[in-house]
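Input.
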Amino acid sequence: MSKATDINGLIEKYSDMVYRIALTRCGCIENAEDIFQDVFIKLSQKKPKFENDEHEKAWIIRVTINLTKNLNNSSWNKKVVTLDENMSFETDEQSEIFSVVCGLPQNYRTVIYLYYYEGYKVNEIAKLMNKNEGTIKTWLYRARDELKKKLKGGFEDEQ
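Output.
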């Protein structure tokens, strides 16, 4: 298998995940697309050797988080950009939840995404984000609490 085929396979395998993380952290499609490209350019340039699929996935998530952090900390990107782009969802409820998640602070959005959408455990998220487990637990707790407050009166009251 050639290197081009390897990269194409990795793009196919991780494209949705990278794009969602970038969009969740950046808040706009254009920046998410730039991050998406940069992640896979870095992958093709560095050509890292991975121990297994989980190591591969963790490396790609880590690079995505670092690139979004660099973009968000850049001097020309200091103003807050809200997510006003439409994404397709299977149900209106999923769309509503995603828009509420996007209203959370960036670190909260990231831990919610990694925990619920990618299935990572707290200790794994801590490693990916270079934070203490206690910090991740706090962010997850606070994010859940904010989501609960924002969604109260919506989905919970319909039952």
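Residues 3-26 form the longest helix (24 residues).
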